[in-house]
Queue: 4 jobs
Job 1
Amino acid sequence: MEAIRGCFNLGSRRGNKSRSKSRGGSVEDSSNASTASSSNPSPRLAAPHPIPAGSEGKICPISGLFADAEIITVDAAKKSQLEELQADPDIAQELRALSMSEKLVQADKPAPKIRARKPAELVRFNAFDGSHKPNASTRQLVQTVGFEALFRMTHSFYQKCFVDSHVDTFIADHDEPHPERFALWIQEKFGDGTPWTQERRTRPKKYMKFGHETRQVAHDRSSAHFAAWHSPKRDPADWGNHFKPEDARVWMRLHFWAAREAGMFEHEAFMEYYTRFIGHFMSVYSSKAPPFTRESLRWSEDPKNIQQYLDAGRRMTDVIGKDTESELAKLPAAERIYTGSRARTAWPYEQR
């Protein structure tokens, strides 16, 4: 889920490579970046003047930027898209956490690890006012599973994403620590300390340029989503477009497949809650994606589905390009009902 990652992409494009591929497939030197079109992501820019000794890595008092920071240039009209993402209740909460004093964050120590001696009872999904809220029960769920298992799941997930012909177009750089960030995000969202918020404080500075305005990108899921929309690996016709339900469906299928292979379904109480957790957070990608959560989970139960996917060149031909309303009609009636992240009685918020 930076993640949800994010969740599609909890990191964003690195800019420290001297040569990179353009969206047309040609290789270009980053020293010529100043001539790049304003509709394409720009590689890392060199400082326009010598940097005095002892000032390396510090912010420029004139421009307000860092010399080694990446700048992604997009059309000024795209600014509202990023602001819309940042208005999501869960993402707004994450932004507030990042703005807190570092001392306050460090003082929030994780509780001692708890190992349940018997299966925990199913936990009611805890969300209100459009935002997921961790509590003692969710913290025990994630501590019972442990970070090692979370990382095993997220690592397997990204390995599948990197070779998926559709999802990989949203991931500009495989070298970013995507699995670690995703696992830390899950851990924090379940209430086990603030490891993801602390990790975000150490990331390289990144910026986005909207017309003549340059803004620092917050290290959160909204900016990661925005970067994924503008990944240079996307088809030019799709570049900058929002996620669609089919994008989220492929993402969820790969994710639950990875969870299954990592043994996560042995933790019944966690996975029942986690399925609802994913359903909730999918709404920021697409408001029509949450009803497909359980269908995405069931997909990897049948080895024939996986083999069909592999035979098609790791492309989910039964999802991509399909009409969303027709696909919704195929779901069990109880799973079609979704009235938004503020609902209390509709899927995924009712108890099983």
Job 2
Amino acid sequence: MRNKHKNKAGNKMEKEKELEKEIKEEKEKEKESAAATEASAEDEAGGGDKEPEKPDARSDKKDEKIKELEDKVLRQMAEFENFRKRSEKEKSQMYDMGAKSVIEKMLPVIDNFERGLATLTQEQKKDPFAEGIDKVYTQLMTELSGIGVTPIAAEGEPFDPELHNAVSQIESDELASGTVAQELLKGYKYHDSVVRHSMVSVVS
């Protein structure tokens, strides 16, 4: 009977010890939890010790792609502008070449008009037919002048190999050496380009 009471008392003490141990462990856990919560709050409040956020890699790649596309568009626009300017220049050059070719073919016709009119006497120039020919010649020269065709000045001018073609030399007491004394065939320019050089005689 005494032993039975002893066993009960021993069991009771062991249970009390285990209960105290559990209570102690629970308190320690609560302390650790409270300390962790406090540390977390300090980190959030301070913010100075936090590591800087890393830039978004996807955002960087997107910006790089946009910049690459913008550069590509700008290059293509510049190339197109250069192509447009080259095309306009080539078109203008082709037009000038075509115009000069047509004008060059018309010059003998103009020469014949001038030769024919130069042979007429003052009385013959009053004839209606002669007047009609003169009006046609005048209209033709007006139209050519309107597109930039002009005769080259020759007689009395200093000889210029860029404009004149010397076919003979003569002596003159009135004109200085190197001066164009006579125009044998009239020359013409289309804008600043020579279509046909003037054939001249030059003072030696």
Job 3
Amino acid sequence: MCLPLIAQVLSVDGMTAEIRLLEGQVTTVNAILEPDVAHGEYVLVDRGMIIEVIAPEQVQEMLAFYTELTELWAAEDAAHV
């Protein structure tokens, strides 16, 4: 299962955007699916493409979900050992 990454847009140049992932890495991605994306917005990134613009208040909710999911996977792995 792949989970999209959460990032903040640093700049936009045509159909590409420079983003900062929450872990701090900066990279360039394709913005063709969200052509109106703007500097400062939070986005979901999957396979080098912005797939959705998200509201800032959704970021914390999504991070909590990712943390819960990680804990569930760890518990499942521990049960199979």
Job 4
Amino acid sequence: MTVGARAQVKSYFGFFGGVSNALSDFKSTDYNNNKAGFGKRGLTYGLDGAYYFYKNLGIGASITYQDNGELNQTDANNLAAGYTNSFGADNSAVTGVNRYQSVNILLGPQYSFSYGKFILDVRAAAGIVKVYSSPETTIYVGGVTNQTTDFYQKSASATVLGYSGTAALRYKLSDNVFLTLRGAYLYSSGPSVTNQGRTTDIGRIVTKLPITTINTTLGLTFGL
């Protein structure tokens, strides 16, 4: 039985699906945190592969779609209460449309450790995060004189740099087929946000939405 760097591993490709979990400011629902994203647990899936050019050292790449949800009624009520307090308003209401949807294209060095039927892959990667949409909110405040009735936090899109750390445990089902459990941490600065209809700087104003997630997936990989 061979262990670690002495065991040559094969290049591979595969597919996976699972859960994307929002973290840090992206997960936060704090009205007073202008980077709070109200991101949710959602679906993720994608393709993954690696080419080994020297023993167990290689280059890995992945293409991943992830959906981190939309504002729910609790979020809307939380935001409305915050705006009411900030503006000293008689009442406020918040409605939301659109979801967090993005695609990540990442590439980086990978090293693999093998033991029997198991292979542990460790990868650091960087690349492009394409954000297609974020929640858009319409905010109504009533009974104030220093702000127009409705204003908006627009849905945002952008292409930004992303950074990732990944650990994957592969279990050998046959000579060239592995069941793979994968955990991937992702960070990007996220899109800039446009606000419309504001006539004052009172209250919550979001200008940037950093995205931080950890994606846990299960899939199959196929040796080449």
